Amino acid sequence: MSSLSADLPIPEGPGSASGAPNLPDGFTGTFTSRYVDTGEVRLHAVTGGGGPPLLLVHGWPQTWYAWRMLMPELARDFTVVAVDQRGIGLSGKPEDGYDTATLASDLVALMDALGHPRFALYGTDVGMPIAYALAADHPDRIERLIVSEAPLPGISPSPPLFLPPALNARLWHLAFNQLPKINEQLVTGREEIFFGAEFDASAGTNKLPGYAVRYYIDTLAASPDALRGSFEFYRAIPTTIAQNQQRMQRRLTLPVLAIGGGESSGEGVGNTMKLAADDVQAMVIPGCGHWVAEQAPDELLAAVTAFLAPYRDAAPGAQNPSAHAAGV
Fold first, then answer.
1. Phi, psi at residue 154, to the nearest 5°?
2. Residue 255 above 60 pLDDT?
3. Can you tell me the distance from the alpha carbon of 33 to that of 81, in angstroms, rounded to the nearest whole number?
4. What CATH code is assigned to 27-156+236-325?
5. Domain residues of the chain, as ranges?
6. pLDDT for res 324
7. Cα-based distances in Å from 198 to 148, 166, 221, 292
């Protein structure tokens, strides 16, 4: 059974809301870190705001921190929950349980503990297949689904082995990260080289700020388990593929917004979701690379809030939609 036990410690240090660097002004006045024991794993989440719940699921090799630029504005209309996935950041790092069915169940237990039986959901990068699994496996829980910047293993066409150099630089990790041990051995002590190259290659022309890349790398280099945990989603891909091949027999019917960066996945995200869902809106953010929440926060925020407006306005106690439009 999941719980918000008073016995759980308060999250502290750089991985927490109180210890993270370069947050927007007033961030810690709105958001706090907490641990939730799902009964299977202890998850770390940063929560704040008011209104209907919105769960944000980060990508690789990031943490909840990827959403920091969007969270204050989203908190004006939504109760925001930005989670560290199993294996990542301050969340627990067990040896197994990294297939998307298990990762999705983690998030259902998290939202149960927080008192949110139904919620909107946004997953990016590896958070996208996790979010898809949650929507497919627990369709009664999700009101609206937003995804960005990833394929769906077992549903999307697999990329070829031989790719143009620029594309190879962005995608070679998909195979490397699945290796059982040698990837950890090669990357240990060279985290800045490996992860620095990943952030750079996927950014396109608009690179992430150095402080953010440094923060992510320091988090990944903090312990052997932190590095191992970062690879475990990929090691479970064969299991996720088998699960997705079953899921796609039950197409999603809820509204879906699929977002690609113009310098990254582009229209591929929308095309992927149309293989698995019936009601898909697709958009591409021009001039944006893979890290959409950090490279194009204003454009992304506008798209997300417009897509979630019907969900927001239908919530009990919601103010008049015209007041939102007027910025009241």
1. 90, -10
2. yes
3. 10
4. 3.40.50.1820
5. 27-156+236-325
6. 44
7. 17, 12, 15, 15
